[in-house]
Amino acid sequence: MNGAEAILQCLKSEGVEVVFGYPGGQVIPLYDALHKVDIRHVLVRNEQGAAFMAGGYARATGKVGVAFATSGPGATNLVTGIADAHMDSIPVVFITGQVPHPMIGRDSFQEADVTGITLPIVKHSYLVQTVEELPWVLHEAFHIARSGRPGPVLVDVPKDIQVAKLTVPLEVASERLRGPSSGLDIDSAQLDAAAEVINASAQPTLYVGGGSLNAAAELRAFAEKTGIPVTWTLMGKGAFPEDHPLSVGMLGMHGAAYANYAITRCDTMIVLGARFDDRVTGKLATFNPEARVVHIDIDAAELGKNRIPTAPVQGDVAAALRALTVRCEPRDRSAWAKRVTDWKESFPLVAHKAMDTGEIRPQHLLDKLTQATAGRAIVATDVGQHQMWTAQFYHPAEPRLFLTSGGLGTMGFGLPAAIGAWFACPEKEVWLVTGDGSIQMNIQELAVAVIEKVPLRIMLINNGYLGMVRQWQELFFERNYSETWLHTVPNGSEVISPDFCRLMEAYGGQARRVTADADVEAAIDWAREVDGPVLLEFVVHEEENVWPMVPAGGDTGKPILEPEGGE
Amino acid sequence: MSAHNSNTECSGRPHTVSVLVENRPGVLTRVAGLFARRGYNIDSLAVAATSDPAISRMTAVVRAADEMVLQQICKQVGKLVDVISVNDHTDEAVVARELALVKVNCDENNRAEVIQIITVFRARTVDIADGEMVIEVTGAREKIDAMLRLLDKYGILEMARTGEVILARGLQPT
Q1: Does residue A468 have an active-site annotation?
Q2: A502-520 pLDDT, tens per residue?
């Protein structure tokens, strides 16, 4: 067995079913061995697509995603996807080819120091030195990627290692694998202190982040026993049922006003697997500085990074919630819950219906998507206004149905992430909600959707603009729409490019353009019936804004509400 | 080795942090890169293998505005897979030493005066040439700083400092 075969055998024993990748000079041995194992390989069209497909696979399942790329440009094309996985704590193992050891450091053809380039954006990385260490490296890479706070791990394998004969066993004793602890063994003094703070609180609010996606049942049990209202971050969306009486809404810059009121006016915030990101807190100093803070996170470094907790709890969120549910008393918090509900009624999020002209308003599309799918579809988004509207108006029925690039905010994430999610969950209905800007950043992956017969439904919300930047230009830069017009919708006699429907058809998929609100429902129904990938292009009102809004660095407790009577 | 981050004000008092790491390729870059990326200021960083060649000790003198920043530094470094342990020994009983080589501007007229000063600091002359003298001094950082202040008026031509290394006193591990 050579190194390349050993890599694939190790992947197999780690339970890998599908790998996303792109061949090249320094991974030819790896690709030569590929078909000797029962692992499906999805050939992408740009390595960045592989990185996001692996990320989408991991986000939809919590399992480790895997991407392959060659050395040099193949590896550097992964970088954005690695950074994306790092920011959102997504478990992905990236395996790159490298020039042979004797060539390293000589500026060889297609040589790039990818372990160096990615050092700040990986959980860990390896430049494999000997074929003997290969099995240990790979098993440890998977262990590190998935344990503790998950994250990306890069394994850079020089070509000479891939062709070298392996004489050591593939199995590695688990004691040899380094990595963070499971977080299941939680300091009971910390739990007692946290319970004391919670029990003493009359007006607490839960602040639920991406680290809670594996703790949905525990979260529900805890919230129901204690009667504490639940708010969530963009990454925490789906951890708590949005139709539950204790469900409040999403926090932050484009969160619901009532959710932001509930977190900035509570006396105690209970933070679960979240990191006080600036898109949630706005200006930290005004983010409810009086509140006591119970902060539960598996990563000790998050406790006190941005906000000093009153009661830090280091550990797995599910395990901590189980322990806290035992320790916390039921308490009548109905007066507080009523205040939150009143805010909800006074400052609602409104999914606007059509314009008077019959033009489509984008919020309405997401409302319709929730109705059509009953929130049971996986919905991946790209980044921008459509992402925020999806976060506001698509209501997933369970965790891991809403997939979005939260921390890095990567345009081009959505299409490959949706494809990756379908490979993870082929039994599920999968939608991509994207914009005319974002989809062009990785549009080449449409070929993968067609060739691999991925029944992906694309809702392309086309307003002709890089809408989120245009919104900031409108609000903060005196409507100076500098370089945000994309020429994707008719505007006088200007050139339109591309024609998304013809483009989709050229790739081999089906497409339909919808310009009237009256046709929205029928179009969504049609897309749900079609076999294979399908694109719905919704041409919408161009200057629609996302409301409410907390300006960057602003006071989360004082969001700007939508101007009276819409815009 | 010294790595300064110009973006952050060099504020706060120095703390000595001892980091045991697995002696693997790139481990120094990982730790130093983390300091730079998170905006922590390193005054000095001394690295070498321990009695176990598979393990190296990195002793960093860092500046932290407050206890929270120092804790962050230790927690972030502690998350690196190759890091075995991180210990902050500020205000603890430790033996702390640094070595400096100092090339001082001096001639036959003031050489005796310089030697008199450095003798008080138990420093040694290791090289003398026309117009300069190289002094070797070992001790706590403050002692070296004090000697440098006194030598300043003669003109320090060049200097190399190792950065502080420490060991905890008694049986407590560093």
Answers
A1: yes
A2: 999 999 999 999 999 999 9
